[in-house]
Design a protein that fits this description.
The protein is of the alpha+beta class. It has helices spanning 20-36, 50-56, 75-82, 92-99, 101-110, 160-168, 209-214, 228-245, 279-286, 291-300; strands spanning 8-13, 40-45, 61-64, 118-122, 138-142, 152-154, 173-178, 182-190, 193-194, 198-201, 219-221, 250-258, 263-269. The strands form 3 sheets. Strands 8, 9, 10, 11, 12 and 13 form a 6-stranded antiparallel beta sheet that branches. A 4-stranded antiparallel beta sheet has the order 4-7-5-6, covered by helices on one side.
């Protein structure tokens, strides 16, 4: 690998979303690994003037490490295409779809991929749970948000309105989703190949923001403990969910396997975290890939140029 072939790389990080803090942490890890590989990588905090700064800085390509809106939802991808700059990861459409949980669910359901039943509610609307096809407990979450921000597990009607108000702080559209009791698995995908599956266990009520980024009590099992054939089934489901959205380069698919053994796809992440609590680096290590090798592999996805 000749590091000069990548030119001057902008690692887009920080940004203006509610996930700015995590993006800065992820970006710092990526910068260190790229520079250790001899690549001319520079941190670029992506404010609203970022496209001008990229052109003025004579950057060759962008490593997108922005989480949440304006970075993971197709917005920055569209801007990069406008200025003709190659970038890592999924394109405009796949990024936009991946960020919108309800659109993903519609697509997955249309090809027979299981995903928890749900209803979508606009800001300020009320709901009569007696008319809904599923009962408590339910998960309330913003339609377009990451890192489990604004997410709540609700066990009874008296808790529902507060949970809806919390989710509406992050998005004008929210989901009320049937809660699936079971084990949570996550499958990282790199260059269209699944990495080893991780089983996530937390003593908290569910795998929320605190469990993901703040707590040391969350346990990650990799290898995941499943027989090989069962793990391959989950990986194939994850690949189908990832491909049908149009993802490329890298990503992560979260699946919960119910107590009855049914696998339900929860969501796809088109710009997964790269912090010390993050799952893609963990799966990469188990597969024998160092952080340096991982980030160079992700950067390689930018070498196909800007899609038409």
């Amino acid at each position: 690998m000749n590091p000069l072939r990548y030119g001057k790389v902008a690692v887009l990080m920080g940004g203006i979303s509610t996930e700015r803090e995590i993006s800065l942490l992820s970006g710092a890890v990526v910068i260190n690994a790229l520079q250790a590989a001899g690549i001319d990588a520079h941190a670029v905090d992506a404010d609203r003037d970022v496209l001008n700064r990229l052109r003025e800085g004579n950057f060759t390509r962008a490593f997108v490490m922005l989480h949440g809106r304006w970075g993971e939802d197709g917005v920055i991808q569209g801007g990069l295409e406008l200025i003709g700059m190659p970038y890592t990861g999924s394109g405009v459409l796949a990024s936009a779809l991946g960020m919108n949980k309800s659109q993903c669910k519609r697509i997955w359901s249309s090809i027979g991929i299981l995903t928890p039943e749900y209803i979508e509610i606009s800001n300020g609307d009320s709901i009569d749970m007696e008319s809904v096809a599923f009962d408590f407990p339910v998960v309330v979450k913003p339609t377009s948000e990451g890192s489990s921000l604004g997410m709540s597990l609700v066990t009874e009607m008296t808790e529902l309105q507060a949970a809806m108000n919390k989710a509406w702080q992050h998005d004008s559209q929210i989901l009320i989703e049937r809660y699936i009791a079971g084990k949570e698995y996550t499958i990282s995908i790199l260059n269209d190949e699944p990495l080893p599956t991780i089983c996530v266990e937390t003593p908290r009520t569910f795998y929320d923001y605190e469990a993901k980024y703040k707590q040391d009590s969350t346990v990650y099992h990799c290898p995941c403990g499943l027989p090989d054939d069962a793990e391959h089934i989950l990986q194939n489901i994850a690949l189908r969910a990832y491909r049908i959205i149009g993802c490329r380069g890298w990503g992560r698919v979260d699946i919960i396997v119910s107590e009855e053994g049914a696998p339900y796809v929860l969501e796809v992440n088109t710009v997964p975290g790269m912090t010390d609590h993050s799952l893609v680096p963990m799966a990469a290590r188990v597969s024998g890939l160092s952080m340096q090798g991982l980030v160079v592999s992700v950067l390689e996805s930018s070498m196909t140029g800007v899609p038409s």
